Amino acid sequence: MACYQLLAVILLTDEVAEPHLLWDQFKAGLCDDVKHKLHYMNHYQADQKIPEDDVYDYGLWDLNRILVGMGRSLADFLPMPLSQQQWAHRIPNPLLHAEQYNVDEMATLVDEQRAIFNPDQATAFDTILESVTNNQGHLFFIHAASGCEKTFLCNTIAAEVRRRGQVALCVASSGIAALLLDGGRISYSRFRIPLSIHEDFVAIDQCLRDLLEVSNYLHLIALELTYYLE
Description:
By secondary structure, the protein is mostly helical.
């Protein structure tokens, strides 16, 4: 991704007389990870050989996507080749793609962890899942001292939602807390929250579009906050 962004910045300087020659010279290195990416996104079988033309075509599409976010496109830098395939319709929503869990494993996990809940955890679990089941959209705040298994409870709730084939996004305010959540991400990474928001911020707009696409599947957002007391 960084190499594509660097090439996009170079193109935006309008100092490259023959951008297509620059692409031809470095496209092999730029597209080095595309085969893995296409296999990962299930566009091809694991043992299927990916045509070289498809690899470079995807690379051009990815480069154009970055340029569009910067207000330009590959069409502005002819005779640069243009992507010929409709990759935008073939790329899975990143939020849904990341939420592919084994339902049987989630069911086993929930059964094992619910069996050792204390009464307060059991009450919180049942209350939150009632809201999820009935699509009530309630907001819950779980507060307890350190070591009281709040993260354990959150992970069990998320597993139950995923067991149902629904989407649960787990986010935290710090990297350590995110690592403790199953499938956890830092909040500003998951939702592309910039340090300073301005009207042309494209990344957060794309994330909102991704969230809108999964709105029919999204049933839980688990946010873990970390407090530092002095």
